[in-house]
Amino acid sequence: QERYKGSGYIERSKLEIPVSFRSIGYCGLEQLKEGMCPFIIPDRAYSEEYGFISGFARPEFYSVNNNFL
Q: Rounded to whole angstroms, what are the CA distances from 62 to 8, 10, 28, 66, 68?
C-alpha cells in the first residue's frame, strides 16, 4: 500500500490487477483513496500461476504480513 501511495501513475498501474467491479465491489474489501482507488485484495487472492482468484477476495483472508492491490 505504501509503495502504491508513493508512486506515480506508471508504477501504480503495474501494481493494479484489472478486474470487474462486479467481481469484488461488494466483498467488503478495503479500498485506497489514492490513484484509481483500488481495492486491497488479500495475498491469498492472487497467484502467479492463476492470477486473480475471486473465491479468496474476502476480508477474512487478509494477511497481517502482505496486502496486494
A: 26, 26, 12, 8, 10
